[in-house]
């Protein structure tokens, strides 16, 4: 009915010739796009699959379309018009945009890990499963009714026989493993065509979500179990989709129910009937939500009818925590399947607000007493769910809606929990613009409820991303810091301070940052509280160096170095030093001689250097050395060559354990000597000659301490050349130098024939430079003698030259 | 494998109405040529009657004992076995003409409205109200309504909808009445929020329900019970007879 009676292959080749290939968007079998009246219909059908099926209800009869003058070929010519094509393509994209969540929506997968890491427990957990062993038998579709009754009865018997399995005393890790096992057995059951068993596993898993013993673990449990539900939803959807396969190939992504065949529909319907008969509310809800997407097979409006019903269904869940997570799941599935259906998202949130009072009701309070959980930590369990719901609502939502949400939150007593979620979910710009309002609201919050420091932290996170109005900035900082500085618990304090440092760096100067640092030091020093806060302290440093690129300003903040002193664990300390050096190398534009910078950075580099020991990995050493080298290269005293040399001498004494640094120093000193020569235009005065000799001496003393033969060889060569160029023949140093080269190269060539070419090259260069140099006879004589003494295969070839 | 028979009915849901033509194909798969002495198709409808365990001498008809099957036989020579394949299908009574009049019911459940109470004084106070959108139901449409727990002294443990099929069978000498729970759907779990309406929603199970049937000596009727279970193990039930039909 719906296919074109055209030769698809011929058509395709035709397209390739005439149209610049519009990736995925354009399809020759959908040429109706051109006629204005039909454009809208087409937009919906935009298929990104490359298959040639174009079945859909809106497809018009091919024969009549020919009569209309909209036959594929003539239309085809018309679509070649780039303007029309581009236009329709864009229209289609716009339309598709509302049907698919964009990349600016933070996906659930990024929240998962965070929740699992945050909501943990040391309490023992238990899993209660009513699985009978012999559920493997899949009831064949269409089996006799009485047969079904019989299997049902058998299953009931199984339950009574005590097939219930209760796993007690599981640690959190055991629990997670068990859930993973269940996930695997779900996939196995599915793969071996045991659909009933698969459904049972899913039902059992979702049942676990009604259990709120060990309530601190609930958010993590939710994450684990909804993973299984997602797997199940995908399996069912794909199975039904695969049933739609027929001679036309697979269905396009945006198929319509009319193009789904009856068998697939019947199977889909069967799933829904089966799920509708699940006795318990929570599993029935979760399993149906998991396969929400399958509604697409049955009717166009299926999802938009289902969502409100499922939303209302959650009202039956008595436990407010269980209910809010159910809402979060529904929003999650809803956003995935039909992000344009905003009303149910809002409805979910409003329903949640209606049940808000339950949190302080007797049932919940009694439960908390039994489990010994404090109210503030109980309230934080809601955050991931509410954050998620609000994030879904706030996604591309108009400002008015956000304002309305905020007003609603304001109206409820003890709204800290909501306030926090509003701040985490809404756009940073929105929050930042109302910072003063938020600070006011935070101040009014009940002390015994949701932890206040979390509120300030959330606000700080927003302000780190978006700027508040210029006039409020200082007041915001003052108001916030007034509260933060009063936090007694160092962990709470540092979590807040860490976030607010960014705001301070963003909008204020060294002075304010210095004050903040001083405050942090004051709070974190007693009882060595900093030991538990290294990650946060590290992040503070990182934030500061991202905003302050001028290191002279940075180091002149008097609290910066004392702040660094708080990193007393060596590994952390070195990491921090690395960060600083990286930033310095990246941002420092010009060479510097600023004593403040030099002092501080030498100190930082020394720390890095001193961390090197026998166990340090090669890679790590390379890393550290390259950072230190980066620093050395950035130091310049300009014309003050002596000062420069004495800096190098100091550096050598400081970084003697890192060979690449020594190599760099030799190079730097050689360069310095050459600089001097340049300044003197080749004719050294007495003073400069002495200076150059000092430079050469520096090199010849430094080189022997290197272990790498080739590094030594090359450096000797370089230094020798430099010495030659600077007429330091009398020194005898060159002799020593060349002597060393020859000894080294000869020794080495004996052992490493394969590398002899390298040595030969060095020697050849050496000879060249001697020729180019003064050509002192003394050197020449000496040369021949030496060569004779050390005749080796490699050496011999040189002598011949 | 040798030769195999298969019946493929055209309708995926295998549901037919009285007077309709059941069509489809018989598929014979075989590697080689098959010799046979005819392929025949038989249709069979049966009711499986069982002696009642309760009242002697009375037959009890279980709802699920009504069965329609299609059977295909292939007769073969002496050397090969005859082949048989059966396939079940469902017959729906023809839909009734005319529109169904919705019959909404409001209800209130308080300790005072209860019957069969031994000690009314020991009951916790509660006030539950709600409504069913209609007790005349179309079998393919869900039963819908709302329920609100306005207040309850004891915590609510669970609220369930219990669908019961009542079969009455007999004549002047006596009759047997048999009530079976065919579906139980929980609509509230735990201590639900007060004054917040909870949806009543139940899909009638396809295999266990049929239009309400009334003949001189045989009746199939349906009822729904709203069961409220309180934490102190008080069980409150409110019964509503339903009239199911197919439209």
UniProtKB/TrEMBL annotation, chain A:
The keyword Iron-sulfur does not apply. It is found in: Endosome. Keywords: Endosome, Protein transport, Transport. The keyword Transport applies. Residues 34-64 are annotated as: Disordered. One of its GO terms (cellular component) is endosome. InterPro entries: VPS35L (IPR029705). GO terms for biological process: endocytic recycling; protein transport. It comes from the Eukaryota. Residues 47-58 have a biased composition (Low complexity). Belongs to the VPS35L family. This is VPS35 endosomal protein-sorting factor-like. It comes from Chrysemys picta bellii.
Automatic annotation (TrEMBL), chain B:
It comes from the Eukaryota. Gene3D superfamilies: 2.60.40.640. Pfam families: Vps26. It comes from Chrysemys picta bellii. GO terms for biological process: intracellular protein transport. Belongs to the VPS26 family. The lineage of its organism: Eukaryota, Metazoa, Chordata, Craniata, Vertebrata. This is VPS26 endosomal protein sorting factor C.
């Amino acid at each position: 009915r719906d296919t074109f009676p055209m030769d698809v292959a011929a058509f395709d080749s035709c397209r390739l010739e005439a149209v610049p290939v519009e990736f995925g968007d354009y399809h020759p079998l959908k040429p109706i796009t051109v006629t204005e009246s039909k454009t809208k219909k087409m937009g919906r059908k935009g298929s990104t699959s490359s298959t040639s099926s174009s079945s859909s209800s809106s497809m018009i009869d091919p024969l009549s379309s020919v009569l209309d003058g909209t036959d594929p070929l003539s239309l085809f010519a018309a679509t070649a018009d780039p303007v029309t094509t581009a236009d329709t393509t864009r229209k289609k994209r716009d339309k598709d945009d509302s049907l698919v969540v964009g990349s600016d929506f933070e996906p659930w997968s990024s929240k998962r890990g965070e929740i699992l890491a945050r909501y943990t427990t040391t309490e023992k957990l238990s899993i209660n499963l009513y699985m009978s062993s012999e559920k493997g038998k899949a009831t064949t579709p269409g089996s006799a009714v009485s047969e079904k009754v019989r299997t049902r009865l058998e299953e009931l018997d199984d339950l009574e026989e005590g097939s219930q399995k209760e796993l007690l005393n599981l640690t959190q890790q055991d629990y997670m493993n068990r859930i993973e096992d269940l996930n695997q057995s779900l996939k196995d059951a599915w793969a071996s065509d045991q659909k009933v068993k698969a459904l049972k596993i899913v039902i059992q898993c979702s049942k676990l979500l009604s259990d709120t013993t060990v309530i601190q673990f609930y958010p993590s449990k939710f994450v684990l179990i909804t993973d299984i539900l997602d797997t199940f939803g995908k399996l069912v959807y794909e199975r039904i989709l695969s049933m739609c396969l027929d001679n036309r190939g697979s269905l396009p992504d945006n198929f319509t129910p009319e193009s789904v065949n009856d068998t697939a529909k019947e199977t889909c319907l069967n799933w829904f009937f089966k799920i509708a008969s699940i006795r318990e509310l929570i599993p029935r809800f979760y399993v149906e939500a998991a396969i929400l997407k399958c509604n697409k097979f049955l009717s166009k409006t299926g999802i938009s009818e289902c969502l409100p019903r499922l939303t209302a269904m959650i009202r039956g869940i008595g436990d407010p925590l269980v209910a809010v997570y159910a809402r979060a799941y529904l929003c999650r599935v809803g956003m995935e399947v039909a992000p344009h259906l905003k009303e149910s998202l809002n409805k979910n949130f409003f329903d949640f607000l209606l049940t808000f009072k339950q949190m302080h009701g007797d049932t919940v309070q009694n439960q908390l007493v039994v489990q010994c959980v404090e109210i503030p930590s109980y309230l934080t369990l809601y955050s991931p769910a509410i954050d998620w719901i609000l994030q879904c609502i706030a996604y591309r939502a108009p400002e008015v809606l956000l304002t309305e949400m905020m007003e609603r939150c304001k109206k409820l007593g003890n709204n800290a929990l909501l306030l926090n979620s509003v701040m985490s979910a809404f756009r940073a710009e929105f929050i930042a613009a109302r910072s003063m309002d938020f600070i006011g609201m935070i101040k009014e919050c009940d002390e015994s409820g949701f932890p206040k420091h979390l509120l300030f932290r959330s606000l700080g996170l927003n302000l780190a991303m978006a700027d508040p109005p210029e006039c409020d900035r200082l007041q915001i900082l003052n108001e916030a810091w007034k509260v933060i500085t009063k936090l007694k618990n160092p962990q709470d304090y540092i979590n807040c301070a860490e976030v607010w440092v960014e705001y301070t760096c963003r909008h204020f100067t060294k002075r304010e940052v210095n004050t903040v640092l001083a405050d942090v030091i004051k709070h974190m020093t007693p009882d060595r509280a900093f030991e538990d806060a290294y990650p946060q302290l590290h992040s503070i440093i990182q934030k500061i160096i991202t905003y302050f690129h001028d290191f002279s300003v940075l180091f002149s903040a008097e609290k910066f170095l004392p702040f660094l002193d708080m990193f007393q664990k060596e590994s952390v300390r070195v990491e921090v030093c690395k960060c600083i050096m990286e930033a310095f190398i990246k941002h420092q534009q010009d060479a510097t001689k600023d004593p403040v910078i030099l002092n501080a950075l030498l100190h930082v580099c020394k720390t890095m250097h001193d961390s090197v020991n026998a166990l340090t990995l090669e890679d790590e050493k390379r890393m550290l050395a390259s950072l230190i080298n980066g620093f050395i290269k950035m130091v310049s005293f300009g014309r003050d060559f002596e000062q420069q040399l004495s800096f190098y001498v100091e550096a050598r004494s400081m970084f003697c354990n890192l060979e690449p640094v020594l190599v760099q120093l030799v190079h730097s000193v050689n360069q310095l000597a050459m600089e001097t020569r340049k300044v003197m235009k080749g004719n050294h005065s007495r003073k400069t000659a002495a200076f150059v000799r000092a430079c050469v001496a520096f090199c010849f003393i430094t080189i022997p301490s290197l272990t790498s033969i080739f590094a030594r060889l090359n450096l000797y060569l370089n230094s020798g050349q430099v010495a030659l160029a600077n007429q330091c023949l009398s020194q005898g140093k060159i002799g020593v130098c060349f002597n060393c080269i020859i000894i080294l190269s000869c020794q080495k060539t004996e052992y490493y024939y394969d590398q002899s070419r390298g040595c030969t090259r060095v020697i050849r260069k050496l000879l060249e430079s001697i020729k180019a140099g003064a050509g002192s006879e003394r050197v020449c004589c000496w040369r021949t003698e030496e060569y004779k003494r050390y005749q080796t295969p490699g050496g011999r070839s040189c002598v011949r030259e | 494998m040798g030769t195999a028979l298969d019946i493929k009915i055209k309708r995926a849901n295998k549901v037919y109405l009285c007077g309709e033509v059941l069509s489809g194909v018989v598929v014979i798969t075989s590697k080689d040529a098959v010799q046979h002495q005819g392929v025949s198709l038989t249709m069979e409808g049966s009711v499986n009657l069982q002696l009642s365990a309760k009242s002697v001498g009375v037959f009890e008809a279980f709802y699920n004992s009504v069965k329609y099957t299609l059977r295909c036989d292939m007769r073969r020579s002496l050397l090969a076995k005859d082949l048989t394949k059966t396939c079940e299908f469902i017959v729906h009574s023809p839909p009734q003409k005319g529109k169904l009049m919705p019959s909404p019911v409001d209800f209130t459940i308080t300790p005072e409205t209860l019957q069969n109470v031994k000690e009314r004084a020991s009951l916790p106070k509660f006030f539950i109200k709600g409504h069913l959108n209609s007790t005349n139901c179309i079998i393919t449409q869900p039963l819908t309504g709302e329920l609100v727990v306005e207040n309850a002294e004891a915590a609510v443990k669970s609220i369930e909808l219990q669908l019961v099929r009542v079969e009455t069978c007999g004549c002047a000498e006596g009759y047997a009445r048999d009530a079976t729970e065919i579906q139980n759907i929980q609509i509230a779990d735990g201590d639900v929020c007060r004054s917040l309406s909870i949806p009543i929603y139940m899909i009638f199970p396809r295999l266990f329900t049929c239009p309400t049937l009334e003949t001189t000596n045989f009746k199939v009727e349906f009822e729904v019970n709203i069961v409220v279970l309180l934490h102190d193990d008080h069980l409150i039930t409110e019964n509503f007879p339903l009239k199911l039909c197919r439209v």
